[in-house]
Structures are given as structure tokens and as C-alpha cells.
# Entry
Amino acid sequence: MPFVDTHCHLDHHEGLSPAEQVRRAREAGVTTLITVGTDMASSTQAIATARRFEGVWAAVGVHPNDAMEATPRVLEVIERLAKEPECVAVGETGLDYYRDHTTPAQQEASFRAHIDIARRQDRTLVIHCREAWEDCLALLEDHGAPDRVVMHCYSGDLDITARCVEAGYFLSYAGNVTFGNAGALREAAAATPLELLLTETDSPFLTPHPHRGKPNDPSYVPITLRAIAEVQNRTPREIELAVSTNTVRAFSLPPVGDVDPR
# Structure
């Protein structure tokens, strides 16, 4: 069973082209990738990149740190892109109170608009949430979440984890689960049910140990998977199989399988 990177930014890497990243991923056994847009331009590019490579899909949206750019015109383009067959998700959207590039009100308006697009187009909603968990979960309950929700680069504590699990949200873990100071995150990973578990790199960010200090890329996702297997007291093969199965359900994808590494 191959590895999966449910969240990467193939067009954000300054050192490797998308083709080089896909090649490295294939050599590492990573056969399914979802490349994610963060504004109108990168979302358009994500669709174009997904069209070029077998096993690569796209997510389109406006990042909460850029929520001021989520104008009616931009959201119209995001919805048009969401209709493309290469697009499997809307996002990353959500709330980020760690940075103050945009106001909470701007982020909330953009978040609600993305939820509506995901529901209208039957696409998975990919959520970025940082230091805003109470408001994020309250908004999803108030507005009504789509059928499929993925918490990207999950960072909640055990209480938030339990609430996400009860709601049926998928929790996607990135390379920061390997960091020395990430004990609380590893506790959350250990508590995540197998059927809601996903892996990602968020590359070129959050490079896992022992490669910290270098740009991340999708070939490193097996490192994160092994870290999760360790805290779950399972074999990497068990986690690999679960993540591959969950990815199909989370993003309504065809079965994950092997692809030509060339």
C-alpha cells in the first residue's frame, strides 16, 4: 500500500520544481498528493499542476491570513475552479488567530463562504485552524459543516480532538508531530481513531525531524507516518493502510494505488 500526502504546496517550493517533487515522492513510495492553493493565483496553478501528473489532485481556496482578498470576484473564481475534475477540496480556509494579517471578522466571512462553496460543489472542506479552535468548531456547528471535513496540520489538544472525532472530522498530521517539543500533539495523534487519521507534509513547510532546517517536500511524509505509528503502538503498515483507505473516503478519490515512478 502506498503513502499519501494529503496537503502540500507543490508550487510554493523555491528549490524544487513540481516535477522534481513528484519524482522524489514517487521514489519514496508516495503515490497520491493533494496540492493546495492559498489564493486565487495559487489555486489556479494548483489545478494546472494536478492536470500534469497522475495521482496529483488539487484543493482551491483563500488562506485565512489572506481573507481580505476573498472578494466576491475571487470567490467566484474559486467556485469555478472547484468544479474542475482535478479539484477534490475547497480550502485551505478557516481561522488563524496566531497572526493578525486579517481581522477575525474577515476570516469568518471568508470561512463561511468557503463552506458554502464546498457544500454546493460537493467538495471536501480543508480547514486551517491555529489558536482559534473554539471559534472554529462553533462556526462549523452554527453554519453547518459539509459532509467531509479535514483538519489540516492538526494541532488541537485532547479535548478538541475528542470533539472533532465526535463530529466525524478527519485529522491530518504533518511533520511537526516529530518535533521534540510536540508532546501534546503526539498525545492527540495517539488518541485519534484509525478511521479518521490522515498524513501530510504541508511542504515546503514543517519539515520533519531529522531534516529540520531544510525545505520540506512530499517525499518526507513516510517520516511523519512512522512517528504516528509509534505513538499509536501500531506498525507503519497498519497506519499506511488506514491512511490510504481514509484518503479515499475523505476526498472521494478513486482507490489509492501504485503509479509509475518515472
User: Anything to note?
Assistant: The mean pLDDT is 95.
